[in-house]
Amino acid sequence: MSGGEVAGILVAVFWAILVSFLAVALVRLAQTLRATTKLVADVTEQAVPLLADASAAVRSAQTQIDRVDSIASDVQEVTSNASALSSTVASTFGGPLVKVAAFGYGVRRAIGGRGKDAPAKPSRRTVIVGRTLPEARRAKKANRNKRD
Length: 148
What we know:
Blueprint: H1 3-111, E1 125-128, E2 131-134, H2 135-147
């Protein structure tokens, strides 16, 4: 055997080994693709009912939101009506009630006023250097000053 023949045999053996490795890799790749296909099919079978349930939940939530929206608009209308009623009552009865209260206060002052012989009431508090003292404390302070 010559050197060229040996080299040819070595190349053929390496090509055979290379083809064997490629065949093993292709077989494993085919197994992986089959497993992936099965997994996708299983996920699809489980996902379809979940999507149907989610769709029903979204429809139900939309119905509830529509109901809440109508309730909120009704509450807003009632609030505006109550506000209008309140301002109407205040403008209708507010002025006359204030006048009646002022008249009653004036009548009480006129009837229950001081007599001619009654002395004027002294003020109950006196301001001293920015603070107030009750009359009893003021009297004590005055007595203390008289002793000094």
